[in-house]
Design brief:
The complex is a heterotrimer.
Chain A: E1 3-12, E2 15-25, E3 30-34, H1 41-48, E4 56-61, E5 64-65, H2 71-77, E6 79-81, H3 94-102, H4 109-123, H5 138-151, E7 156-160, H6 168-183, E8 187-191, H7 195-201, E9 204-209, E10 212-217, H8 219-224, H9 226-233, H10 235-243
Parallel strand pairs in A: 3-8, 3-9, 6-7, 7-8
Antiparallel strand pairs in A: 1-2, 1-4, 4-5, 9-10
Chain B: H1 2-30, H2 37-55, H3 59-82, H4 90-112, E1 127-130, E2 133-136, H5 137-159, H6 161-171, H7 173-178, H8 183-205, H9 215-230, H10 235-255, H11 258-275
Antiparallel strand pairs in B: 1-2
Chain C: H1 9-15, H2 17-35, H3 39-64, H4 73-90, H5 94-116, H6 121-141, H7 143-146, E1 152-153, H8 168-191, H9 193-203, H10 205-210, H11 215-241, E2 243-244, H12 246-249, H13 252-265, H14 272-291, H15 298-313, H16 318-331
Antiparallel strand pairs in C: 1-2
Helix pairs in contact in C: 2-8, 3-8, 3-11, 3-13, 3-14, 4-5, 4-11, 5-11, 8-9, 8-11, 9-11, 13-14, 14-15
The chains are: A alpha/beta, B mainly alpha, C mainly alpha.
Chain lengths: 245, 284, 336
Amino acid sequence: MIVEAKHITKRFGGLLALDRVSFEIRSNEILGLIGPNGAGKTTLFNTMTGFLVPEEGSIQFQGHEVRGVKPSDVCRMGIARTFQLVKPFGKMTVLQNATVGALCRTNNTRKAREAALEELQFVGLYDKRNVLASALTISQRKRLEIARALCTRPKLILLDEAMGGLNPIEVREMLHLIEKVRGAGNTLFIIEHIMAAIMSICDRIIVLNHGVKIAEGMPKEVGSDPQVIKAYLGREYVVAQNRKP
Amino acid sequence: MVVQLIVSGLLLGGVYALISIGLTLIFGVLDVVNFAHGEFLMLGMYVAFWLFSLFHLDPYLSLLIVGPLLFLVGLFVGRTVIRPTIGATSAVQIFATVGVSLIMMNGALVLWKADFRSVPTSYGSGTIALGPIYIGYPQLMSFLGAILFSAMLFPFLKYTYLGKAIRATAQERRAAMLMGIDIQRVYVFTFGIGIGLVGIASALLAPIYSIFPSVGSQFVLVAYVAVVLGGLGSVPGAILGSLIIGITETFSGFFISPGWRQAIYYAVFILVLIFRPQGLFAQK
Amino acid sequence: MKDSGKIKWIDLIRRDTEFSFSLLGILVLAVAIGFVRNPFHLDILIMILLWGMLASSWNIAGGYAGMFSLGHGAFIGIGAYMSSMLFIHFKLSPWLGMIIGAVAAGIVATLLGYICGRLKGHYFALATIAFVELANISGVQLKELTRGSEGLTIPFRPGWANFMFQDKITYAYIGLAFMAGIYFLSLIVERSKLGYYLVALREDEDAAKSLGVDTSRIKMVAIGISGFFAAIGGTFYAQYILFIEPDTVLSFAFSVQVALVTIIGGMGTALGPIVGSFLLTPLSMLLRAYLGGGLSGLHIVIYGMLLIIVVLFLPEGIVNTMKAHLKKDITGKEIG
């Protein structure tokens, strides 16, 4: 268990965005986070990475409290994240983007560059290393975000809708990449809307609705949980699932 | 004494309000900081001056010319210089309006020289006495004019199509586009309206203040502080902010040397920007 | 932006076209200075070098880090006034005074970076304007120290210790040394971890944070360095012109000028401010000389028009636009 989160609560004025959310993340697992829009998923990510400070609760990462720690320190502690709307450094090349990540662990730009090249190889962007980030397709940008995050040598990676905006082929490639990232020893916590993808790749899934955790468990359990179906999946999904051979 | 200061301050604030409303409107809708705002004021004052000198047109009448004229000037500048910079980096936007400011201020210097001009109307220094309070006649007229035109702005924004389009664009640009609003035109029109308001203010101020090429800079500083106090983009905020500034100015003019007075504005400005950037009155 | 870990100068010359050309350019300039006889031309050259150095310092925070300051006049003024006052009242060598002034400016700049660090884009710019105006007012009001708006005249006692010279050529060489110094510093920063972090900060602050960049600290470092070198330029100005007043060295006008030169030349690139200065400084000085007299202000009108044209059509600045074109031609594929 590398993350233990207890009773995370976050308010925005009168709005309760997260209501005593507790969960744990186990080492080397892929944990999924699903729920309708506005359920608080990205907010949860933000509290785990220092972009927001929860009013209550604690987030223990490998025994250290992460709540209230500023984002750059969270990164150094070993938690990396990507963003729902990709944020490439547009005027830098792909290689330079990744190098920024690698500089988290070294002060030497040459070493950082070498590490960056490795990660670019890993995600399949090596050929594009000298292309300006602003010239990449969305699928490439998503992969760059992951490469960049990997350069910071994280132990836990939070992926925020890594498959958003991708066509089916790209989704499959992304799934493949995510599995590869896990295979390299990382732990992943991913937000996704594409049900087929998340069901197939996650070891466990947490479901959020209106800031409350309404289900937690293996994909099959969660997929047939009536509360989850009511709040998010919808009966059509169940019917579709049951129709499968 | 205090009451006198407050009254004078409110009158002063009323005029600042006209200048500030334009500024906040432009900022709220276009998200552009108009560094040339003061220069448009200067331009309007010169126009009022020439209309007075050449045609003996009273500024309170010529505002009906100066206002629309500056509105057209605003449309022109908005279309040619401002509109292309929307969405560009801050650097580009800032320098576009700085460029306009430089051209206008120095253009005025070249054309009309640095001499101070004035519009000596017959009622120029007349005062009205309300009990122990003295109210300058031109100050009163300015204040009333400011109230009149601000008041006209509200129904415009609320009920006309263009007004609604402006508010929609200020609130949520993309949604406005999706609703079929031609944002580019909204931008240009809003800029024009903002400058038109400045034009009215300039005619109202002409009987009171000396006119010279850099007269705008002093007023624009005050407008900025008022706008930031009231919350960038909020018209009621700009009005309230202006009234507060007006009163602050009369009080501090009384107690503090004029040299340091401006320093207080700047200090307040920075503090508000840092601690309460949404302005004193915002609910968010 | 290229990177090479530890700098090996020979490698740099061989691999880096920009670096070699600049080195060459500096040598050419150094030689050329010796040949310029006309004092007016020398004056222009010295001002080019001065504004080149001032714009380069602005570029570190404004160009690389995206901290668009319109208040750098404050730092220039701190440098100018500190070294001058220390010289006049305590007979302290302006060389020492320059360092003291630069450190003071650096500290003030760092504080400004701390206080205004959270402000974005034009909000930050507005705050810096207020800041320089505050500095200006202080300069005017604190008459006992600064002689207020009358200005401060630095007594002319030529000599190396006093950082004052009879002949302009020495000023030119010193100016060249300073400008080259800041230029090479910018190159070094560009290729270093700090440089990467500055640009990351500028391009996307949140993404930078998530990658371990302590953005508040980096902002303070950037503007601190920037202020430090701007102050050095301020002292140079004082030692050359021998007269300083709040309306020049503590002014919004100077602040606009340094930003302007960098924008037109190219932000976020070491050569940008220098190219900008070579273009704009002679232009404005010549315009002022030929048009200033009878039609005072016309040169600024032209200046303003040029500004708008560049900003609308060449927003990246000259050097960046050229780089983009060059990279496409040489390699055929897009390169950053």
